[in-house]
Amino acid sequence: MTLTTSGIDSKVLISMFRTMITIRRFEEQSKREADSGKLRGLHSSIGQEAVPTGMCAHLGDKDFIFGTHRSHHHCIAKGVDLRQMMAELLGKSTGTNKGKGGTMHIADIDKGMLGANGVVGSNIPVSIGAALSAQVLGTDHVSVVFFGDGAANQGALHEALNLAAIWKLPAIFVCENNRYAESTPFEYAVAGGSVANRAAGYDIPGVLVDGQSVLDMYEVSGEAVGRARAGEGPTLIEAQTYRYHGHFGADNPLAYRTEEEEEHYKEKDCIKRLTDYLVENAIATTEELDKLDQEAVESVAEAAKFANDSPFPNPEELFDDVYSDYPKGALVAGMQLDGLPDPGLVTPPSS
Ligand SMILES: Cc1ncc(C[n+]2csc(CCOP(=O)(O)OP(=O)(O)O)c2C)c(N)n1
Question: 167-190 b/e with 16+ CB inside 10 Å = b?
């Protein structure tokens, strides 16, 4: 291990650079696919790469994360396969969800990515269920939920914070405050001026962090993950970040914010800052980082080719994987559900 001035192993720093540049190149390709009409409802995460990268650098496949409608960066940081992701974006049968989830509903259980979700705030209570499963099973796995500043105003956050606090669940709440919920400014919609401050009401740590600094994100995430693994309970993190594009690609962000504001945040770009740090501290050369960038471009291009060449799902498979066969042998977060009553789920119509 080679510790740097930041106290972070140089291999971890390079790995985080690779993750962030891969997210950016993936999102650029996603936009090209959307512009050519093959993908609808793209919510770009460009600008926010450091938030899940700094957090997921502390997580393994057995730890859980939950995302939002804007979750490509979460998935990539957690190690979801780029080819399967891009195929999912294009609705192809080779996608993570066999093409039935699309950009807003990517999930990969094997990687611990338990789901993006288009319903704002909905994953917050689900995430503490996963945290509870880890506690009941006695593992040291943690559950992390990412959500936006808009979602922070959903009552579900408060219910989940309360339960996680009283039961000391291994849960981490990460608010990605990108300053807008669609076009509504944070200052207008969020009382008290901070999401992190809300932790005080539950007597848990609330941390405000520069979400455009992957070094800072890595540090606060490490503390939160350490607390959760040690049985010391949840942490609420508010990462201040910015989305460079509009809410979902078809809106004009300059209708509700200024070019000066956009420039202000772009000057603090997370990839540029890590690049400068790595070069100035002789951890990597510009040429080495350019090579990693080129590798990211190539793997994204390969993912796009794979996705474009893949078939759409067979219409006969429309109802496959839609209705669960729970409780017959179903596994939820590693928990066997045998013996639970038959919930009498609806069977799909035959025609
Ligand atoms: C329950 C619910 N209400 C409203 C919407 C419509 N909607 C989609 S995204 C969004 C804004 C969410 O803002 P935020 O949580 O800050 O996330 P961001 O888009 O900034 O990443 C809204 C209102 C929705 N999908 N679900």
Answer: ebbbbbbbbbbbbbbeeeebeeeb
